[in-house]
Design brief:
The protein is an alpha+beta fold. The chain folds into two domains: 1-118 and 134-159, Chitinase A, domain 3 (Roll), CATH 3.10.50; 173-306, Tetratricopeptide repeat domain (Serine Threonine Protein Phosphatase 5, Tetratricopeptide repeat, Alpha Horseshoe), CATH 1.25.40. Helices cover 56% and strands 12% of the residues. It contains 13 helices and six strands. Strands 1, 2, 3, 4, 5 and 6 form a six-stranded antiparallel sheet that branches. A hairpin with a 4-residue loop joins strand 2 (33-42) and strand 3 (47-50). Helix 9 packs antiparallel against helix 10, helix 11 runs antiparallel to helix 12 (282-295) and helix 12 (282-295) packs antiparallel against helix 13. The protein starts with a helix and ends with a helix. Interacts with RET in the pituitary gland; this interaction prevents the formation of the AIP-survivin complex.
């Protein structure tokens, strides 16, 4: 271990063991999967990220060694740890310059967003030197002024190659394209079984996978468009799930993004119309439903059903509001009468 520590220090990494862990140190061949919790801090103790609290839940980091993770220093330091070990690594700036981009992706994932949201279509180094805000003041500050960071890691599990099923994020581009139809079918099966939340997650994973591939293409090129046409039906299915889960404004955002690119997508208009109706946007709902009939007159019966449902909800809402106002007026009258006789 002393030899490892000397090698680390020579490369600008200082290791402090908090708890030594158990068993023999793995040789960590390429393809090894490691699971660990992490807490990232500035040298003054300010915490930037903590996998135990990020996104309101505790989710450990998973890395497959040899897959060229954006933050190579993490691959370097985990190979010095035993299962159960807890250690702090203070790393020089040369190892931490790309951390703001990695942190942004991890934060996006923890909140159910596209991992690449907020990142420009350029290489990591170019983004580090750009003035584009990442949407997080602490990351903007760190990007403008790179500095050493302290990574506190707890090694939970070390899995040798071949002992686990490869996850999508660890696949090659070709493997990702091959697995998308399977993920689509799995999402459909979960939806049909009534597990809407799990179906939503499956569709989201497939969308994120395709968007990751799309980021490598020039917007508008043939392959970019081909990937976008694969994303669209998955995104519509995702919107269906989100509608059933009551997340109507997310449906509005996604359907609008589809319509902005594909003005004749009748399903996007139909789902957006239903979402508008759900949040009492009557005029917008009627406009979208009218567009649905214009694009596909065979859906007139379905549209009429949605319009009747919306109108019934509006009448019921107006009736409830009228009752509340009536009770309020009645209470006010009684209060005035009591005051005049008191």
């Amino acid at each position: 271990m002393e030899e490892i520590d000397i090698t680390l220090r020579a490369d600008g990494i200082q290791k402090k063991v908090i708890s030594p862990g158990e068993g023999e140190l793995s040789t960590f061949p390429n393809g090894t999967k490691v699971k660990f919790h992490y807490r990232t801090s500035l040298c003054d103790g300010t915490v930037l990220d903590d996998s135990r609290t990020m996104g309101g839940c505790s989710k450990p980091m998973e890395l497959i060694l040899g897959k060229k993770f954006k933050l190579p220093v993490w691959e370097r330091v985990v190979t010095t740890m035993r299962e159960g070990e807890i250690a702090e690594f203070t790393c020089d700036v040369k190892h931490t310059a790309l951390y703001p981009l990695v942190s942004l992706s991890l934060r996006n994932i923890s909140h159910g967003k596209d991992p690449l949201e907020g990142q420009r279509h350029c290489c990591g180094i170019a983004q580090v030197h750009s003035h584009h805000s990442m949407g997080h003041p602490d990351l903007d500050k760190l990007q403008a002024n790179p500095q050493p960071l302290v990574f506190a890691l707890e090694m939970l599990e070390v899995l040798p190659p071949g002992s686990f099923q490869l996850e999508v994020w660890a696949m090659t581009d070709e493997e990702k394209l091959q697995v998308i139809p399977q993920m689509h079918e799995e999402g459909n099966a979960l939806f049909k079984s009534g597990d809407i939340s799990a179906a939503s997650e499956k569709y989201y994973s497939a969308i994120a996978c395709l968007k990751n591939l799309q980021m490598k293409e020039r917007p508008g090129d043939d392959h970019w468009i081909k990937l976008d046409l694969m994303i669209t039906p998955l995104l519509l299915n995702y919107c269906q799930c989100k509608h059933l889960l009551g997340q109507y404004y997310e449906v509005l955002d996604h359907c609008s993004s589809i319509i902005n690119k594909y003005e004749d997508n009748v399903k996007a208009y139909f789902k957006r119309g239903k979402a508008h109706a759900a949040v009492w946007n009557e005029a917008e709902a009627r406009s979208d439903f009218a567009k649905v009939i214009e694009l596909d007159p065979s859906l007139e019966t379905s549209v009429a059903k949605e319009l009747r449902a919306m109108e019934d909800r509006i009448r019921e809402k107006q009736k409830e509001e009228k009752g509340r106002y009536k009770n309020l007026f009645s209470y006010s009258s009684k209060a005035s009468a009591a005051a005049s006789t008191g």
